[in-house]
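[audit] Reproducing an earlier prediction to check determinism. Same input, same settings, fresh worker. If the tokens differ from the archived copy the diff job will pick it up downstream; this log only records the rerun itself.
[audit] input (178 residues):
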Amino acid sequence: MARRRYKNLSTDMDSFLDIMFNVVGIMVLIVAFAAIASTTTRQITRVEIGVKQETGKEQINIICCGNRAVYFDRKNTDDMEKYFSVRLEGHSMLLTPKKGLQGWMTFKEISQDKNRFTSLLDKKGGENHGISLLIYQNSFAIASRLESIGRKREYNFRHVFLGMHEPLEFSRQKAYHG
């Protein structure tokens, strides 16, 4: 009751909503600080599909766009043409998500207990694989959900933030530094 008088809130529901918004705000700050703490400050000009040589972990690339997500690694790069417009330039591929995002996993699919993403993570294992989250501006909610699922399975994450119409540039080499 003291809180209601202090904030001049008229009902118990107003008090409950005030507390709920404070809790949600704190959770958003925690997720934001975790993302900031796990990113590096150097600018990335291309994303590597191969194995990072320092850690020896193969990267699973998860692209989040428009509240949908799709994944691929070095072995299933042929699937990229289903989800992306592919343009080759030298030793790199420039990828742009296709309109409609057909076949991409939705937030609802990812929120279910058993889905394509969790079965992939259970099959690969966090000891030998890392995850690169490639996040477009309009897809932070699905990226945070994917990261919470992956961290429970002890995966390490790398984050790349992209502008709305920025193409992804992938190098096709099998191993890389950096």
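[audit] rerun output stored. Observation attached for the diff report: The two ends are 56 Å apart (CA to CA).
[audit] end
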